[in-house]
Amino acid sequence: VPAERVSLRCCSTRVSLEDVNRPVIDRIIRVDHAGEYGANRIYAGQMAVLGRSSVGPVIQQMWNQEKDHLKKFNELMVAYRVRPTVLLPFWNVAGFVLGAGSALLGKKGAMACTVAVEESISDHYNSQIRTLMEEDPEKYKELLQVIKQFRDDEREHHDIGLEHDAEAAPAYSVLKTAIQLGCKAAIFLSERI
């Protein structure tokens, strides 16, 4: 892990649960865990279809980062004692189908999916950063670092998608809008259920 990246080790020994705003933290960690879980399933679906193509290594590289993100949120769920969303079995199937389905449109379709999802997630992370900054930036310092780093990774994935011709996908704007509406619905539901 480069020096500027956030450590992905477990932080359970340093979390003081009495001092946190439980509803806010529960919602943030639950939805971020669900989002990273879903992203892993999307990339798994894309790799199932395009893994042996010329874009396979690019997808694998992004998927490896998402695996690290999911591992960290698994640790944070334990450290903060947050239950996962009950929708994980649904996100398991929906994420894989979205990834494989977009990949069936070819490299450009897969990259259009990546752009749509990663833009939605980075915008969502920005909203969470604002919330935590308003709450208490010092109290949530480590969580803020994690979310900022992951937001930056998602923006990088977004840019990789654009560099690999996402905007040339068939019906790009319609595809992007539909996927982003799905992301908003998934965020809304995963925060609450």
Question: What can you tell me about this protein's structure?
Answer:
One of its GO terms (biological process) is determination of adult lifespan. InterPro entries: Ferritin-like_SF, Ubq_synth_Coq7. Pathway: Cofactor biosynthesis; ubiquinone biosynthesis. With 193 residues, the chain is an all-alpha fold. The chain has a single domain (22-191), classed as Ferritin (Up-down Bundle). It has 6 helices and no strands. Helix 1 (22-50) packs antiparallel against helix 4 and helix 4 crosses helix 6. The relative contact order is 0.17. Residues 6-13 have low confidence and may be disordered.
Write the layout of secondary structure elements.
Elements: H1 22-50, H2 56-80, H3 88-104, H4 107-135, H5 141-163, H6 172-192
Helix pairs in contact: 1-2, 1-3, 1-4, 1-6, 2-5, 3-4, 4-5, 4-6
Short overview:
Helices cover 75% and strands 0% of the residues.
Number of DSSP E strands: 0
Rg, alpha carbons: 16 Å
Mean pLDDT: 93
User: SS-based structural class?
Assistant: mainly alpha
Overall geometric form: elongated
- Specify the number of helices: 6
Q: Give helix and strand order, one letter per element, not per position.
A: HHHHHH
Query: Regions with pLDDT < 50 over 5+ consecutive residues?
Result: 6-13
Strand percent estimate: under 5%
Named at the architecture level, the CATH assignment is Up-down Bundle
Oligomer: single chain
